[in-house]
Amino acid sequence: MTLRRSRTALFSLALVAGFSVAPHYQSDHWSTATAQAAEEKIGPKVTSFFLANGMQVVVIPDHRAPVVTHMVWYRAGSADEPPGKSGIAHYLEHLMFKGTKTTANGEFSSRVAAIGGQENAFTSTDYTGYFQRITPDVLAEMMALEADRMENLVLTDELIIPERDVVQEERNARTENNPGSLLREAMVAALYQNHPYGIPIIGWQHEVNSLNKDDAIAFYDKFYTPNNAILVVAGDVELDVVKDLAEKTYGKVARRAEPGKRMRPSEPPPRAARRVEMEDARVRTPSFQRLYLVPSYNTAEDGEAEAFEILGELLGGGSTSRLYKSLVIDQKIATSGGSWYQGGSLDDTIFGFYGAPGQDTTLADVEAAIDKEIAKLLASGVTEKEVERTKNRLIKQAVFSQDSQSTLARIYGGSLSLGATIEDIESWPKRIRAVTPEAVNAVARKYLKKKRSVTGYLSPEKKQG
Amino acid sequence: MNARANLQPVKWVLFALATMVLVQWNSSAHAVDIKQITSPGGIKALLVEDYTVPLIAVSYSFKGGSTQDMPGREGTAKLLTNTLDEGAGSIESQAFQIRLQDNGMTYKFSAGFDEFTGGIKTLRDDREDGFELLRLMLNEPRFDVDPVERMKASRLRGLQGQETNPQSLSSKAYREMIFAGHPYSRPTEGTIESMQAIGPSDLRNFVERIFARDNLVVGIVGAISEKESGEMLDKVFGGLPEKSKLKKVPEITIKTGEDKHVEFATPQTNIRIALPGIKRDDDEFFAGYLVNYVLGGGSFSSRLYDEVREKRGLAYGVYSYLGTYDHAGLVGAGSATRADRAKQTVDVILAQIARMAKDGPTAEELEKAKKYIKGSYAITNLDTSGKIASVLVAIQDADLGIDYIDRRAEYIESVTLEDAKRISAKLFGGKPSVITVGQTVK
User: Which of B237, B272, B303 is the last residue of a domain?
Assistant: First the structure.
């Protein structure tokens, strides 16, 4: 096992939005935005402290509207599951709504609904989170209920067996019904040769089928304990009030376990480029993907993750990016093309490329064109001007995140679950500003090597005869 | 549930926090202070003026969405949402994209059956440039052949993908059945054939007919005065023609009592159910809204949730909703489950609809629904400037009155159990249409 330094993990919303699995459909409002040079502006005073039992508490004031976002994050995700029990982190997330010693099945949800609140939960590879969006007057009640289900969950077969079918239907909707998701699952499994990130968050269908009450309780007893949890309260609340309520609710929960440092099986040095190809009758138009194994904010050397952030954006982050301009606009080889970096994960993560051929081009054309852009990047590097423009764009995009207290709560909760500190989160713009063209070139040359990659082709089924 | 998610990974936006501007919504947290304003040029808008955030959100809506697509050119309004930002005035596509990015404003366009809507958010300091870019997009879009063809290619790819997406297939069958013969039966996204046929002149023609002052509503929120708002309105919208040229769209009562199955080899069957509903201007709208919540409107708490998901584990998602369009009202319900349990799932949903028609909600259910519907409004709609701007537009679109937010709770409270039972019988008493897309179990 490799010891990894726990350091800065900027939390990109990617983890929550991209790879998480929620018990209910969620709709995203349009968001994000812009700003001016905002370094000099004052932000909301984010406060963090620890309860005696080791639970971290973060308070983010936002008094614009009489709304509070209350979240609890556990440092436990699908990559923490025992072998053969894939999907148990996510299944448990569903089961957390089934009641406790003193609260009936569905009662918590009914209390949320009683005031018009919203609630949900999500599971990623590295954490599991639960939240309610409510009015301030019921915060105390929500905290009491959430603290209760941290230690008093009661599961019966009668309640949990139908829920396992629900999870399988969730998998059907997300994955089985979607050839693109099936290919992605196979590609990620091929990318991670030893690390559990290769196992889908929702679990392999055949393993989910045999998950039971004991599996769920074992995972719960191992990870659901205040010293492994982070409370985030954002919105129309005062620090003193949260402090007092937290002591009275979560503060009363005993340390149930000592999960210790998370040590997952680690990746061997990648030696062989891998290719994954899938044909499916449901595919109408082919698509190309390439995934590279690269460091995350948590595992990277100083500044590497920030450099990847710039690289992903500059190379393939929208309609003015290198890849889009070259493949879609100039050469007309593809109808889409781009790249992305998912920096927020505890262990090594993914830098990805994608592209879709046009009517008269093939997957091989798209792959060759992307490879040519990568070769050009490695040979000639990026320009100062490109890097500056990308930095400005990233930082401008970042500023409007304050417009949504739920977004703020997710950023803080996610980042802290991945080992970051509040200072890490707050210094992100400064660290992005510090990225040089040389640093971007260096990460590209160090990591964008074929042997670190998996290439995926998704194609329509070949016609018989 | 984006069918295209596999094709094009979304580029996740990164958020930084050190750059945060202190945001305070004054003490007006419990009452949004809305002003009706008129620009010097005579353009009306609703304004919520507030300087605690140096940010301005502008939302607007033009009456006339995909129903205004010309025959054979279905998808025009949708394609417009991708092409308005591809160059305007003397600035060509790439240069325009760079200018938008450098300004940093966010903007969006969207097209539904009845409206073409949009919005921007800009920092106060960047507003002049932001408003100018919006003016250019709405008044002087270029529609150069190259970017238009590029956007068409991307849309065509999406349309091809829809041919094998169970949700898209079911949405198509649903629309064509319940809205048969009406413009609503046409695909908002267009068809492969219609999308191929659309050219720059069709886009231009749509803009000329629909982007006008007489079918426009605007909502403004944030760090902008009444006077500055007036100047913005004249600058951005003042150059548009006075009168739109809307094609008249007839009313339609949706067709029900028909069943349709689309055979398609995929593990999970998609289910949709429809009944005639009520429109937004119906006196019984809130009664209908409340009983729908009881049936299947609440995400964790509804009869459908309990019966389909909680008790039987038949599905991950199950829902019902009131579809309120300008020219039709409907009650929709749906779910998705594995093929061999599809029939059972349909039967459970139909049984709940029938039960709701027969008995309506209980007094306790109605009270819970009232509490939820009253409380959720602020929690869901009034916590960001962009959402408030959208509310200002919606209030005007539906002609709800400037005091709607304050009066909404009274409307909800005034619904009696008798009202709820009467509307339940009316909404759920008919014979539903049922559409399934999936594999037949042998």
Answer: B237
The residues in A 251-280 lying below 8 A from B, measured between CB atoms, are none
Kindly calculate the radius of gyration of chain A based on its CA atoms and give it in whole angstroms: 23
Q: Which of B8, B18, B311 sits opposite A162 (nearest CB)?
A: B311
Q: Do B368 and A113 touch (CB under 8 A)?
A: yes
- The CA dihedral of B223, B226, B227, B230, to the nearest 10 degrees, is 100
Q: Rounded CA gap, A303 and A300, in Å? A: 7
Summarised one tens digit per residue, pLDDT across range B41-62 is: 999 999 999 887 788 999 999 9
CB contact under 8 A, B313 and A432: no
Give the DSSP H or E segment for B75.
none
> How large is the average pLDDT for residues B310-337?
96
Indicate where chain A has its CATH 3.30.830.10 domain(s).
Answer: 44-252, 274-460
Can you give the residue range of the structural domain that contains B209? 34-237
| B53 domain-assigned | yes
Q: What is the ipTM of this complex?
A: 0.88
Looking at the complex, does the CB of residue A426 fall below 8 Å from at least one CB of chain B? yes
Task: Determine what percent of chain A is predicted with pLDDT higher than 70.
Answer: 90
The CATH number that applies at residue B311 is 3.30.830.10
Residue A271, both tokens: 């030696």
Q: What fold characterizes domain A274-460?
A: Cytochrome Bc1 Complex; Chain A, domain 1 (3.30.830)
> Per the structure, how many domains does chain B have?
2
Residue A408 in contact with residue A130, Cβ under 8 Å?
no
B43 and B157 inside one domain: yes
CATH 3.30.830.10 fits A44-252, yes or no: yes
